[in-house]
Design brief:
Strand order of the largest sheet: 3-5-1-12-9-10-11-20
Shape: globular
Helix content: 25-40%
Strand content: 25-35%
Radius of gyration: 27 Å
Bound molecules: ligand MTE, hypoxanthine, dioxothiomolybdenum(VI) ion
Number of helices: 19
Distance between the termini: 56 Å
Largest sheet: 8 strands, mixed
Length: about 750
């Protein structure tokens, strides 16, 4: 089944927020944001801007009727700054004008006086100064202290992984339209329609039923629109509340880069202990998460870092802790992997440090510690149906690892100025929102009297093709062709109280709800057919748009059956609710069973480093991935490739830079490099691991959105391996991204 959006995408006909035909009286907004990272607002002079012809009104916190509070997890973030600013780019006011150009011109006319306060930009500095978002969290298993005293090798070290810009193609934005009696409709580019609805209602001081949020699709989200699509929607809604006219705001790229948060940079410290047989018996890590100026999703992301701190390895003694450090950067937020990648980079670094000290190939330590059936994670969940060893050994075999390694050795012997490197990267990623209460979804399925079907869910289509998967579920359960099924927009009045489309769980949660709704409808229709054909229920099925009896085509078509059901006044609509069973987590003990299942895989990455220039190419990434029983391998392979490219970008060339005053320096695509076709691997080969799949996944087809991003971590270690082949005196460092500049320094370090 092809992606159902491909036709309109290719023709440029797919609709995004900026494509909506707007009402004639629409006004346009733009944010006035802080030109300093920290300080007291002494005075803002709006007078010249307000007097500019075409400016309708400039909104500030004083215009808020409800609460000036947009915090999701913690109430620590104002929509518009009051007397203090806490990051460069923090919204202070919202200018609404007849055109976008006038609004922008007005922005230039605003002057502000800020009494500057000290700026913190790094997590380490925040920790030293005791600047935190909330209390730290710790997970532990066994007793690391005792275990370290019995180890043959104990290594300590420090790592850093930088942030990452989402760079969704469609920037943030919203179009707000007044409805009757003070209601407002918001067309938003958000992964979390309910978050937008709830926070808008809070800020406007109205009940949630006054706010309808509609999402057609996103031009990418990658986590950047889980929480951070909200402020722009709320601002347009505040303006509508006062002006009773439609208001549109689409951020331009510069404003989006400057004002929105990114993946969290982490500074981390590790201690790893091993025995002579290379078993890791103890692991400790302290993670300092650079949260930025407000909580946003940082506490949840910090938690997932702890969940993934031992990646796909079994370590019997673990102690990890994480601090969400408050700094003067834009609040950092969800980004594909949600803190998991930051955790995994640390244990992979620790293994590299240990391998270097012991003098063994890194992969022997990895291999000696891969998870087995019934191993316990540090958070108490017992690993079952573990596939990591299967993916590891099958990758080694199918891709002929030893042959690749000897080819690389030979290449490195024969070449002075080019060196090749290799790494293996196993993954284990937990599927479910780590916050158990969020694991639910609903679907509303209508069968219209002509036999066509309309499906609404809480799932947001953001390019991951969840709509196609939902359609496949309907087609499969009802036994009808895909042309009969339409996926509706995601709308809070049709499907309420949704969790955001995130945590790679959207297809699982919403798909299960769609399946339940379709099964209920099918049951009612089969009953009608039973009477029409005078057969018993067990013998009836629907396939290819026709009623079948005992596997034989009957004369009754789907349309006839639906028409008959109408005559008999059978309900042709169904609303189903799914909540993931089994999962639970006790935060007071930091133990439980938070994940429905894990996704596993192994990637082998090879690279070539140009040792004169420090530049490099990713030659191949060869993966054995656990898709379960994929329901759409084309889509799933696309997710693997996209995530991999994004992971490699994070580890290699994407370098976020703030100056010490907290101003974003990498504020354009000329200074922030994302992988293009030349920096993508020349070959990506993905082999699905053959498994039975997992019942907790929709149609046993495992979630795929985030896990493959972490294969990209392999690129860091493959490059490191090549650098070491050139410069024996290079001391391993774990400071991502490994940019060409850093590679050059490493090649010639003495
Ligand atoms: N793929 C595309 N094309 N665009 C996106 O924005 N987001 C990723 C992933 N794949 C994303 C994507 C992230 S961060 C998540 S959590 C999942 O998709 C969300 O969708 P799913 O739950 O349906 O996998
Ligand atoms: N993953 C992604 N997004 C989330 C999560 C999670 O575990 N929890 C809350 N939002
Ligand atoms: Mo994805 S980071 O869970 O939106």
């Amino acid at each position: 089944m092809q992606n159902i959006d491909s036709y309109t995408h290719v023709r440029g006909e797919s609709l995004f927020v900026d494509d909506i035909i707007i009402r004639q009286d629409t006004l346009f907004g733009v944010v006035f944001d802080s030109p300093k990272a920290h300080g007291k607002i002494k005075n803002v002079d709006y007078s010249e801007a307000e007097n500019l012809k075409g400016v309708t009104k400039i909104f500030t916190y004083k215009d808020i009727i409800g609460e000036n509070q947009i915090g999701g997890i913690l109430p620590d973030e104002p929509l518009w700054a009051e007397d203090e600013v806490h990051f460069w780019g923090q919204p202070i006011a919202f200018i609404v004008a007849e055109t976008e150009a006038i609004a922008k011109q007005a922005r230039q006319l605003i002057t502000i006086e800020i009494e500057e306060l000290p700026v913190i930009t790094t997590a380490k500095e925040a920790k030293t100064k005791g600047s935190f978002i909330n209390a730290p969290r710790s997970f532990s298993l066994g007793n690391t202290e005792e275990a370290f005293s019995d180890c043959d090798y104990v290594l300590e070290g420090e790592t850093f992984s930088n942030g990452q810009e989402h760079l969704y193609l469609e920037t943030q934005g919203c179009y707000a339209i007044p409805q009757e009696n003070g209601s407002i409709k918001l067309i938003s580019s958000t992964q979390g329609p309910t978050a937008v609805q709830k926070i808008t209602a809070r800020v406007l001081g109205v009940p949630m039923h006054k706010v309808e949020v509609d999402v057609i699709r996103l031009g990418g989200g990658f986590g950047g629109k889980e929480d951070q699509a909200t402020p722009w929607a709320v601002m347009t809604a505040v303006a509508v509340q006062h002006l009773n006219k439609p208001v549109k705001y689409i951020l331009n790229r510069h404003d989006d880069l400057r004002m929105t948060g990114k993946r969290h940079p982490y500074s981390s410290f590790f201690k790893i202990g091993l025995n002579k047989n290379l078993k890791v018996t103890a692991f400790e890590a302290e993670f300092l998460q650079n949260a930025g100026a407000a909580a946003d999703l940082s506490p949840a992301i910090a938690e997932r870092t702890l969940f993934h701190a031992t990646n796909s390895y079994f370590v019997p003694n673990v102690k990890t802790s994480v601090y969400s450090c408050k700094t003067n950067l834009p609040p950092n937020t969800a980004f594909r992997g949600f803190g998991g990648p930051q955790g995994m980079f640390v244990i992979e670094s620790a293994i590299a440090a240990a391998a270097e000290a012991i003098g063994v190939n890194r992969r022997f330590i990895q291999e000696a510690n891969l998870l087995s059936e019934n191993d316990e994670f540090s958070y108490g969940q017992i690993a079952t149906k573990v596939e990591v060893q299967n993916t590891w050994f099958s990758a080694k075999k199918k891709f002929e690892l030893e042959k690749i390694e000897s080819e690389i050795d030979l290449f490195n012997k024969n070449n002075e100025s080019f060196k090749k490197g290799i790494s293996l990267m196993p993954i284990a990623f937990g599927i479910s929102f780590t916050n158990t209460p969020m694991n639910h979804a609903r679907a509303l399925v209508h069968i219209y009297q002509d036999g066509s079907v309309g499906v609404s869910t809480g799932a947001v289509e953001m390019g991951q093709s969840v709509n196609t998967k939902m359609l496949q579920v309907v087609q499969d359960i009802l036994g009808i062709s895909s042309e009969k099924v339409k996926l509706e927009t995601t709308n809070t009045t049709r499907v309420a109280n949704t969790s955001p489309s995130a945590a790679s769980s959207t297809a699982d949660l919403n798909g299960k709800a769609v399946k339940m709704a379709c099964e209920a409808l099918l049951g009612r229709l089969v009953k009608v057919a039973t009477e029409m054909l005078d057969e018993d229920e067990q013998s009836i099925s629907i396939q290819n748009d026709v009623v079948f009896v005992n596997g034989q085509k009957s004369k009754i078509s789907w349309e006839t059956l639906v028409a008959q059901a109408m005559l008999e006044r059978v309900a042709l609509s169904e609303n189903a609710h799914y909540a993931t069973p089994i999962i639970h987590f006790d935060k007071t003990k930091e133990k439980g069973h938070p994940f429905a299942y894990h996704v596993y895989g192994t990637a082998i990455t090879t690279v070539t480093v140009d040792c004169v220039r420090g530049i490099y190419e990713i030659d191949t990434v060869k993966i054995v991935h656990d898709f379960g029983k994929s329901m759409n391998i084309g889509i799933d392979l696309g997710q693997v490739e996209g995530a991999l490219a994004q992971g490699i970008g994070w580890m290699t060339i994407e370098e976020i830079a703030y100056d010490t005053d907290g101003r974003l320096e990498s504020n354009a695509l000329s200074t922030y490099k994302v992988p293009d076709i030349f920096s993508a691997p020349k070959t990506i080969e993905t082999i699905p691991l053959e498994t039975e799949g997992n019942d907790m996944a929709i149609f046993k087809s495992k979630a795929v959105g985030e896990p493959p991003l972490m294969y990209g971590i392999g690129a860091y270690f493959a490059i490191q391996n090549a650098v070491k082949a050139f410069n024996k005196s290079y001391v391993l460092k774990f400071h991502a991204p490994f940019t060409p500049e850093k590679v050059l320094m490493a090649l010639y370090e003495k």
